[in-house]
Amino acid sequence: MSVNSIRLTKTYIHLDRLTQNMRLLQEHVGTRPLWPCIKANAYGHGAEIVSRHLMSLGYHTFGVADVEEGMALVQAGVQATYIVLSETLPDHSEALVTHGFEPTISTPTMAESLSRETAKAGKQISVHIKVDTGMGRVGIHPNEVKPFLEHCQSLGGLRVRGLMSHFPRADEADKSFSLEQIERFKKVVKETKGYGIEMYHLANSAAIFDLPDSYFNAVRPGISIYGLRPSWEMTNPRVGELEPILEWKTRIVFLKEVPAGRGLSYGHAFHTKRPSLIATIPVGYGDGLNRNLSNNFDLLVQGVRCPQVGRITMDMTLIDVTALRGIVELGDEVEIIGRQGAEEVTADELAGKLGTINYEIVTCISHRVPRVPCAADDTGR
Fold first, then answer.
1. Catalytic residue numbers?
2. Which of 16, 136, 246, 336 has the least CB density, counted as fewest CB within 10 Å?
């Protein structure tokens, strides 16, 4: 038996919704290429599943966080162009050149290391220079771009294919800082015309919807691919058309009646206030269900919101299903993220409970939870 068939806790990845989301994003940017970001296991959705489907839709350039993510996909047979979005060190130069990845660079040390490696391998490598227009994380100052570009072009084996930057505040209602960034980047674009730069790219998911002046030659969507909104401050109403592609489900493995006043789970952080029917489900913080959600969120059983009770443990969690006494059964499906009937629990809802963002909720779903690709209205069973 396969792991997918044995495990009771699974995520289901709706590829039809992924297709719809990509169409929506492509409508916004016109003929400009979309370079989907599939880093961090496609934001927790399964990089191999997502990348294969995106390739079937005609997308062949992907953003990954590091060399290892690109190598894993190549070894899985996903032959695409991989832009490595995080900074790398000379230790990575051999792998970057060998696999033909396109790293982002912003230091002479890295540029020179890549040049030496291309000479050894008899190859050329394409790179993207990262410009810090306001993110404040990595990248060179706009005033340093021309001398750094000229230095890179003086090195053998390096082809500077692109110049790029990144937004820290594009998902906010106040776009003033982002508009300043766009102007800084436009200045860099103007100053580097004639240097043979093929691609200038800046826009992320939020910018696709709210900042059309940021599109330039290519666009790097991330969270929106997966049907999750970058924030609730977005001003474009079409962001509401995004469809979450992930459902997270498990099943009831145990039911028991518990008297009033009984402490449940570690530390007895919850005590029943009435005679209660308690269900156990095989999912816990080892699967990515954050322990800080304990006693603070609902799950769906038979279309009814049922409160989680007691501390979430590594492998198991408890639900109060008293409202379903007499009809709930062993093996019933439990929705952690997704819809049952008229009710829905979203990644945004869980993020709100934790004071975080939807990105973290889905990205933290553990590797031991199988990602199961499915089509419309299909949950894999």
1. 39, 266
2. 136
